[in-house]
Specification:
8-stranded mixed β-sheet, alpha/beta, Alkaline Phosphatase, subunit A, 12 strands, two-stranded antiparallel sheet
């Protein structure tokens, strides 16, 4: 084996198993000459947030009264001014981002379009990455067109094994609601891009072929080839190589643990489905680890990640928070009585996002930057407040982007700014030469670094 290895080279073992390699210095002649692609990932949180914990300046605000949008405006809570400030002091819900606040932007004031006639929860999920103008699409009750992830993948997904990957952390089978409550990625109106919810299925999709599905541990099949490859690597690359394989081993161990737990729970008679008792954080982080590996190895450059479904009353076990599974949606409509519990759930979700930021920022790329520096990683929800179904002033965080993005800011957009302005900005950063996207009115200049 030569000293120069293609980054696209795969380790192949018995039965056709394959593991894609991460970037290593020994794989290229000159790291500084390597063009590192910009990736895009979306981390979607359902049912909005408790505003007083998330939004700066709202700690003492009462829960808005009313329903369906523009509630904050009617109460005089929105600031119509465009303001940009350093992201210095973080609110309680944002506190897990403290270590990475120089690599994130908090963006407030963004509004999502709403088309009367269908459920607000369904629209806030299914139309989140579409933002089509209301009533602009004929023959459908949904303002839903091809979503941002697929438009970006049309441009830059031709050289990766997967144009896009769709992750979901909804393990339940008792699907009370329609597909519009449980998916944010769409090929087009009425054409769903189905997500994968089972970690084992996602693992096999990324790393396995049909011939090796009978094997429990895929990495066992490639370790012999790995040993021969390691002899051609420098010291730092050997360390990266071992860390990479250790991360794969850890993923497999986590999958085994959750599968054994689920198998055991299935034998017990519960009021809720067994999935309700799976540790929520472990499940989210396991799916997140798979997403990071897919981005790290170049299996895809575009992903969506849905933490949970909208409105479903199915309970989850938020480990470390409550003594039994709880329904996020039901809690959101009892915010006065359950405010402290809901704040804990919001913090729990932010901790999972912060975990992925840290993981991505520790993965080095050829130019010396991190995977996070080469990823537009957005946290967001299609509701600004879960109790009132407020679909304006959404909770949005943009992390990463490196030198392309001006970071460490709280950007408050003028009242009524379409969420599609952010999607247009991201599309252009990803290389799309488009004049507009959905109901956009322009780009967010405050995000664009002068170094770009």
């Amino acid at each position: 084996m030569g000293n120069s290895l293609s980054r696209r080279k795969l380790l192949r073992g018995i039965g056709g198993a394959a593991l894609a390699l991460p970037w290593m210095e020994s794989n290229c002649q000159a790291a500084s000459d390597q063009e590192v692609p910009l990736r895009m990932a979306h981390f979607y949180v359902p049912i909005g947030v408790v505003r007083r914990g998330f939004f700066p300046g709202e700690a003492d605000h009462i829960i808005p009264k009313g329903n369906l949008g523009n509630v904050m405006k009617s109460l005089g809570k929105q600031d119509p001014q465009h303001k940009v400030k350093p992201l210095d002091q973080l609110t309680p819900t944002l506190e897990p981002l403290t270590a990475k606040k120089n690599k994130v932007n908090l963006i407030t004031g963004m509004d999502r379009t709403f088309q009367q006639g269908t459920d607000v929860h369904a629209q806030c999920a299914s139309c989140y990455l579409s933002s089509a103008k209301p009533y602009a699409i004929e023959g459908t009750a949904w303002p839903l067109a091809r979503t941002l992830d697929h438009l970006v993948a049309d441009h830059m997904g031709t050289k990766t094994p997967f144009k896009t990957l769709e992750f979901s952390c909804n393990s339940h089978r008792d699907n009370k609601e329609s597909i519009y409550f449980d998916n944010i990625s769409w090929f087009g109106t009425g054409h769903l891009a189905p997500s994968i919810r089972d970690p084992r299925k996602m693992y096999h999709r990324l790393f396995s072929t049909s011939e090796v599905k009978r094997y429990r541990d895929v990495t066992n099949l490639v370790l012999e080839d790995a040993k021969s490859l390691k002899t051609d690597l420098g010291h730092s690359d050997r360390q990266k190589f071992e860390e990479y394989f250790e991360s794969i081993r850890t993923i497999e161990t986590q999958m085994d643990r959750l599968e054994k737990m689920k198998s055991g729970l299935a034998k017990i008679d519960f009021d809720e489905p067994p999935e309700a008792y799976l540790p929520r954080g472990q499940y989210i982080r396991l799916m997140g680890d798979l997403m990071v590996v897919a981005l790290q190895t170049g299996l895809t450059n575009v992903t969506t990640f849905m933490v949970g479904p909208e409105r479903w009353d199915t309970p989850y076990r938020f480990e470390g928070l409550f003594d039994k599974p709880r329904s996020h949606h039901q809690m959101s409509h009892n915010q006065t009585r359950m405010i402290d519990d809901l704040l804990q759930v919001d913090l729990f979700h932010m901790q999972q996002y912060a975990y992925l930021l840290e993981k991505m920022d520790n993965i080095q790329q050829p130019d010396g930057g991190s995977l996070l520096d080469h990823t537009l990683f957005t946290y967001g929800s299609g509701l600004g407040d879960g109790s009132t179904h407020q679909y304006n002033d959404l909770p949005i965080i943009l992390a990463g982007g490196g030198k392309r993005v001006q970071s460490g800011q709280h950007i408050h957009m003028p009242e009524g700014t379409p969420l599609a302005n952010l999607w247009l900005t991201q599309a252009r950063m990803m290389g799309l030469k488009i004049k507009g996207f959905a109901d956009s009115t322009g780009v967010i200049d405050d995000l664009i670094s002068v170094e770009q």
